[in-house]
Amino acid sequence: MVSVTRRSLLLGVGTSAAAAAALALGGCSLGQAPTRIRMACGEQGGTYVQFGELLRDALTRAGTTGLEVVTTGGSVANLELLKHRDAELAIVLADAAATDAQNKVAIGRVYQNYLQCFVRRGGPIGGLEDFPGRRISIGAPQSGAALTARRVLTALGLLDGADAVEVSELYLDEAMTALETNAVDAIFWSGGLPLPAVQSLETEVELVDLTSALPALEVDHPGMYTLAAVPASTYGSAESVRAIGVSNYLLARPDLPDDVAEALVDVLIGDAAQLVPEGSLGVQYLTASNLIDTSPIALHPAAQRRYRQLYG
Fold first, then answer.
1. Are 117 and 269 in contact (CB under 8 A)?
2. pTM of the shown model
3. What is the 3-state secondary structure (H, E, C) of 216-231?
4. Of 83, 102, 131, 180, which has the maximum CB count within 10 A?
């Protein structure tokens, strides 16, 4: 058996070495379904890891496929791990996935992300009109949040010229500390509701409505973003806050074994209630009619067949 460290997997290994690593982790031989697969998720404290852990537990209960949850910077990093065979599954924002629809397939659309912009309550930012010149963390390096945030800031005219903001890319724990210590004035996060890490902050925060960017986003990225809302109860606001929504896809490599793809579909549908984090307020897509909507990424053929077998 080949021994492969997590560090070598995340730094990237050659195709042949990565293939050997996958076999070693799975404890299988060529042509057989792996008994263990890796899923590239996101940062600790975020929704991606929560979902990955719930999916892992559901697969364990089903006795089909073991799942290793791999923490990463987010969607863009996850695509790289999938591309280089350092993960068999990845959860990825639809806008990040659509930048290159090749060499990947979808198992399903699983839930909606909300692009959230947190500022200190009573701080220097009360709305978008206060953004010019401010220090803003747009998300972790190689995260989907950073990709979406850059698109939003571009649409709002806040990345260039006299109104440009000062952009940094901070990991979640760094961003939270920076917000509390006034090192940044706002932080972006893309995830489900609520963001668990916010609930442990000593500093009171509030959300900024970013939805005035939607018309320009629709022109540049048609059909990718939707108008959503963060309920008032989420972070203690007196009213709901409008937000920008974007779907999440559970992606795989095209050579993911058919029986693994089928097992994943069975769990996504049969264990849907157990795949929603406790206290989650966001929109879930864990029904057959919603799971199959993964455009422009094609469904894994075996997953598509399984959806048809179950629901026609």
1. no
2. 0.86
3. HHHHHCCCCCEEEEEC
4. 131
Check if the beta carbon of residue 41 is closer than 8 Å to that of residue 69: yes
Q: Which residue has the tokens 């350092």?
A: 86
d(CA 204, CA 273) in angstroms, rounded, equals 31
pLDDT tens profile 161-187: 999 999 999 999 999 999 999 999 999
Contacts of 272 (CB under 8 A, 6+ apart): 284, 286, 287
Compute CA 162 distance to the chain's CA centroid, rounded to the nearest angstrom: 32
166: its two tokens: 């000062």
Report how far residue 125's alpha carbon sits from residue 209's, in angstroms, rounded to the nearest whole number: 12
130 vs 235: CA distance, rounded Å: 21
Nearest residue to 107 (alpha-carbon basis) of 295, 213, 261: 261
* Residue 36 main-chain phi, psi, to 5 deg: -145, 130
Residue 166 φ then ψ, to 5°: -95, 110
Of the candidates 20, 17, 56, 11, which has an alpha carbon nearest to the alpha carbon of residue 38? 56
CB-neighbour burial class of residue 68 (10 A; exposed 0-12, middle 13-18, buried 19+): middle
- In the numeric block, which tokens belong to residue 39? 């899923």
Nearest to 170 by CA among 139, 142, 145: 139
Q: Which residues contact 121 (CB under 8 A, 6 or more apart)?
A: 203, 204, 205, 206
